[in-house]
Amino acid sequence: MEIIHLSFECYPVAKAGGLGDVVGALPKYQTKAGHYAKVVMPMHRTKFLNTHEWDVDFKGRANIGNWWFDYTVIKERNNTLGFDLFLIDINGLLDREQIYGFADDTQRYIGFQVSFINWLDHWEHKPDVIHCHDYHVGLVPFMLKYCYQYSRLGDIPTVLTIHNAQYQGWMGWDQSFMLPTYDTWKGGLLEWSGDINPLASAVKNAWKVNTVSWSYMEELRYNSNGLEALFEYERGKCSGVLNGIDTDVWDPATDKFIDVNYDATTVDKNKQKNKEALCKEFNLDPQKPLIVFIGRLVGEKAADLLPDAIASAMYSMQGYVNFLVLGSGDPHIEWQLKQMTQTFKGSYNAMIGYNEALSHKMYAGADFLLMPSRVEPCGLNQMYAMKYGTVPMVRSTGGLIDTVTDMGEWQGWGIRFMQASVGDIMHAISRAVGLYYDDKKTLARMRKHMMEIDNSWEKSVQQYLNIYLSLK
Ligand code: ADP
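# adenosine-5'-diphosphate complex -> structure
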């Protein structure tokens, strides 16, 4: 099958979170399984662009309302990522290093989508499926079906994967002039609650929709930032496919970022060595349990609870536990977490920013990974943690329910809690600390067990293939 993945992120070209990881891995594993998967994304000006070789594949001209612009499609020459990678450039819109966060993001998303469809219209053949990731490319299924100019392409099947339904790309109707001329009788298929809603439009118009775990799909029917009724109505074409992890990048046996490689047979000895290196770098005590948090410092991840939860743990258990935080996001949370490094020197530290290499060292060196998320569509951190023998401490929500079992259950390997609250986090911390000091045998059993769990992409690739085949 020829599959086109449309996305704003793809690791290692440009990544802001899990979306990048998934789009960097899924096409590679689909190619390995004998399919022809391609990724098409904007030409963000990241390091990857300058360090790889490119050929110009196509040059075209398209418009957003009255503004006509030239766009260029380039292709990576050496197939470095294991699949064909195409980047679309529009001068003045997509030529930036940062992926999101601009006042003209709506134009950027539409410019990219319009250029892609315009380019596709010049192809001599049609792909088997266009796989759209998140709302940034959510207007494509509608445009293919209902924009007069592209009516030839209306029979190409589309799939939408929702990595996060909190963000929907709302735009007012006064901005509808930016879309290519469309059948206005179908305007309702762009709309939700009075606005143009690209995510809702994608749910309505894509042939099949999936989220990145089953439990999150269920959750969306009663908690999806306003789209609950839509998910209830469209449930017939919706499903859940759990993300995998890319073991070429995330495997402690081969990871180039970590100090000492290890597998399930050497985890106890070598994890401690990684922990010692990490603790040395951050002035922590390697004899105490090390709990880490890695992620965006935003409400969705319940990062606002971290300062209070860590401070409470420090006061009640100081001398018995270490914390290390890596993340960036809300400036107030960043500030609080940074301030606390002075108060709890020697037991707590924080690195504010985005640091891929350090994240690997933390998965390898930590004993526990804390994820109190309020919303977690799938969550990759806990799966990386498991692969590195680091016990996940997670709130029971979304993909965390589907991937982590509590140590109180038969053969369980994680610590689960119900509420995103300081109280529940404290309780989880005390269970973790108790496990570390008082039940080393169970901890060793859990580590070995979770490292052997197969969360690889092969399973999910087959499930996506089944979705594509159901479109025929
Ligand atoms: P989301 O996509 O909602 O941010 P996921 O759990 O799906 O959450 O994916 C998060 C990914 O981003 C993981 O690969 C995680 O290691 C990485 N990550 C998040 N914040 C940072 C950071 N500050 N530095 C390095 N990696 C980070």
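# post-check
The mean pLDDT is 96.
Residues 289 and 321 are 5 Å apart (CA to CA).
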